[in-house]
Structure formats: structure tokens, C-alpha cells
Amino acid sequence: MNDGGGCVEMECPSPDPPPGSGAPHGSGGDASETYCLFATTSINQLLKSGFTHCFISQAKQHFELIILLHMAFLLVSSYLLLTYTQGAPVENGALLETLKSQVGLFSNKSEHYSTQVRPPGTSRRIPQTIIIGVRKGGTRALLEMLDIHPNIVVAATEVHFFDWDENYVKGIDWYRSLMPFSYENQITIEKTPGYFTSPQAPERIHDMNSSIKLLLILRDPTERVISDYTQVYYNRVESHKPVQPFEEIVIKNGALNTKYKAIQRSLYDIHMEKWLKHFSLDQIHIVDGNTLIKDPLPELQKVEKFLNLPSRIMSSNFYFNQTKGFYCIRSDGRERCLHESKGRPHPVVNSTVLDQLYSYFREHNSKFYRMINHSFDWH
Q: Could you tell me the superkingdom of the organism this chain comes from (predicted)?
């Protein structure tokens, strides 16, 4: 504070000089300037003095500090509440969920975990379980529903570590950095539907952890093809791109277009064969996607058993949303449904085309049933 004239002084790094000023670029970063507030005689002089740059810079720093202090306060308060209530924070599911929501342990938004505050006693760990697919099989619904369990933490986004070369070359530490913080008795789950159909993913996951447990959610292959088409259709409409009717894509020159990617993804036997070269069948639990959307609890209880977890998911955690036409989640006083992009209406498909799809998949389905020693009620 200047003793004469009510001048407030503040110091901050000088910005780079404007072009043509004669000063070398970057020279401002090594010095600091003192700005006198309220003594400048005009707005133009105030702006030219560089005060605006200084003020914004310091205001930003102060704001970030306030945010960090607030998060730290919430974290400590929640931790003490958990400790005094149960003596072991990880045993109280409801309070743990409160802690997660208070300090942003995870959410279903696209966020990077490096910005999170680390709760005491936690660490980021490589997933012990991965949902490997299949695309449009119900992977998001499965992940959201498993997220109810207090002994499960989930990665917020699809990482595509094992199926995209550009991510795989970043290394295992990069992969770990994208995982949420977890306690020792919690299982970290990541889901990327593209893994199931990826030629490289089975071997790469096996190289990381040969004893890992895998979850695979499947649905009727013909329904999956139509759902796959529906997602692409709406994405193209929203991007103002041209679209084709389903029949024109699936049928080419009067025959089934078996090269269509959506059809290729539904050849479960071909993809499963690659996984069984690296993992035993008892390491892969198959979730019935058609049953999960109609009656979630029995399928989730099977997953709890497969993961050796105590039974914590209950029927009260779900309610049927008549508007959306599928089950939504109720957990710790909060209700949430899947994103609006889920459960979109499918196009009405020509019955002749449907019969061609059913016929094509029938042999592949039979082979798949023999591989896994189990059958499904598919067409």
C-alpha cells in the first residue's frame, strides 16, 4: 500500500511486450512490474499499463486456491464422518457414496481423473475387472448398475487402451492414471465395448494380468445389429449427414451384406474364439443383455458372485421408468437414468430382411453356445 494518494500496489509477472516495441519476445517473463491502482487517470492508461493482465492472472490464482481449500474441507469432513460413524470408511456404502459425490471421486461425466483430490488410504489401480463388450450389448447399463455396489469403483469413460494402438503405446502408467481412486477392498472396473471385437485386445490384456476377470454382455445378435445401425443413424442425423435406410445397407445386390461392420460385430463365436486362446472360460462371465434390461437384479447378483463380492445390490435400487421404457437406478436417495441416447426407438425392419439375419446368425449362435456351454433365447 502506498502511503500517499490511496494507491494500491501489486506485483505480477510482466506480459510479453507487444510486437514492434523493440523488447525481445519473452523478456517480460523474467521481471515483475508494480501497478498502482486507482491512481491511473484514465481507463486507456490503466489498460496500457498491463493492469488487466495482472489482475486476471492474480484473480485466477486466488479463485483456484479457494476451490482447492473448499474441496479439501469437504474431503476432511466426509472422512471424519465416515471414520466416527463406522470406524472403517469402506464398509458404509451410503456414506461412501456421499464422499464420492462431495469430492468428485468419480462421475459419469467425461472428466480426467488427474484433477481429483486423493482421499486418504486410496490409490489409482489397474482394473481387476474389465467389461470387454459387446458394443450395443448393454455395457453402459451394466457399468452404471454395478456402480451401485460400495465395493466397486468405475472408470468414467471408455479408455480404448487395448484396442487403439495410439493409446496402447502410451504405456500402463498412462492407463492407470485414467482410473478412479479406490480403497484396497474395492474393485476397479473399466469398460470399453470395442475390446471384444479387437484382434489385439485379448493378448494385450492377458499380458497385463493373466488372472483378470472379464465381463461380457451380449444380446440377440440381430437386435444388436439394428441397435448398432440406430446409433450411427442418429449420430449422422445430428451431424447433418446423409443417412440410408437399414435395408439398403444390410442387403446388397439382393444378398445379405455380411461385410457390414454391424453384422461382423454380432459374430460372437468368431470373436470369442480369440479370447479363449488367452483366457479360460471361468475367467469370462457372460451377462444376458436381454434379461438385464427386463429384470436387472438376477443378472447383477450373478456378477456379484462371479467377482466374489458380498450381495449389496437390491431390487429397491431399481425402478421402471414408463416414459423411457427401461429401468433406472435409485441409490442413496438419488435417482438417475441412462443418457437420453440410450433406448432410442429402432426402425421398423422389413420382415424378409429380419428372416435373412436370423438365418445367417443361427449357425454362428449354435457354435457359440457350444463354446460357452450355455444357450440363450435368441432367434
A: Eukaryota
